[in-house]
Amino acid sequence: MTIRVALAGAHGTMGTLFDSILSDIADVEVVARLGRSSSLDELDHADLVVDVTHPEASRAIVEHAARNGAQVLVGTSGWSESRIAELRGSIPDDAGVLIIPNFSLGSVLGTTLATIAARFYSSIEIVESHRASKADSPSGTAVRTAELMTAARAGLGPVEAPHTEQRARGQEVAGIPVHSVRRQGVVARQEVLFGGTGETLSVIHDTVDPSAYERGIRLSLDAVRTVRGLVVGLENVLDLGITRA
């Protein structure tokens, strides 16, 4: 059975990568490639909608696709916990939506390691760097990492984050300062900094080429076919072989 796919954001960097990968999957046919001026009606004949657009456009695309019975794979950044909660209340209970803040295996492993470490350190900050043209900050990966670390620290008290009223201290996400750098020559980098008595720990992940996303994209395209409800994170697609926090 051929799966009909609509690709929203087809002409962007991630859209181009998705298009190349989709064309290599035997039982998939891309029936629509949407750009900025496309109508949402172009999604209506798809079994699967892939959304790699812009944070401002993503919600309408996901809601429209889910209400029309399509499975949805979201690679658009900017989906915070609060936005996900709003989406959960606006789509059918039997919808299948998979949101992936970052398709890199190294990135999800870095976030998992940081989530484990967060239980043992109370001084935590995130520094993330992306290309100069990235539309949103903090990155969706940094937001996801901060939210997971704070959840892992439930019952341990807030993170030590002094002087966060000063703008140079970054933006607080789930109580953790996040510093965003946008510059040329960078694909993606995240460093989670931990401080403890007499020691520091850094969990660093660098994406040096977009090809790092390919394996995660293929795994997600396979997993989204059977997703029920709203699932967030590549870690929920992988078998990490550990007990999660």
UniProtKB/TrEMBL annotation:
GO CC, any one term: cytosol
Annotated pathway: Amino-acid biosynthesis; L-lysine biosynthesis via DAP pathway; (S)-tetrahydrodipicolinate from L-aspartate: step 4/4
Domain Dihydrodipicolinate reductase C-terminal: 109-238
Entries under Pfam families matching the protein: DapB_C, DapB_N
Assigned EC number: 1.17.1.8
Residue ranges of domain Dihydrodipicolinate reductase N-terminal in the record: 3-103
GO molecular function: 4-hydroxy-tetrahydrodipicolinate reductase
GO biological process: diaminopimelate biosynthetic process; lysine biosynthetic process via diaminopimelate
Reactions performed catalytically: (S)-2,3,4,5-tetrahydrodipicolinate + NAD(+) + H2O = (2S,4S)-4-hydroxy-2,3,4,5-tetrahydrodipicolinate + NADH + H(+); (S)-2,3,4,5-tetrahydrodipicolinate + NADP(+) + H2O = (2S,4S)-4-hydroxy-2,3,4,5-tetrahydrodipicolinate + NADPH + H(+)
InterPro entries reported in the protein's UniProt record: DapB_C, DapB_N, DapB_N_CS, DHDPR_bac, NAD(P)-bd_dom_sf
Keyword Oxidoreductase: yes
Family listed: Belongs to the DapB family.
NCBIfam families to which the protein is assigned, alphabetical: dapB (TIGR00036)
PANTHER family, per the entry: 4-HYDROXY-TETRAHYDRODIPICOLINATE REDUCTASE 1, CHLOROPLASTIC-RELATED, DIHYDRODIPICOLINATE REDUCTASE
Protein name as it appears in the record: 4-hydroxy-tetrahydrodipicolinate reductase
The species this protein was found in: Paramicrobacterium agarici
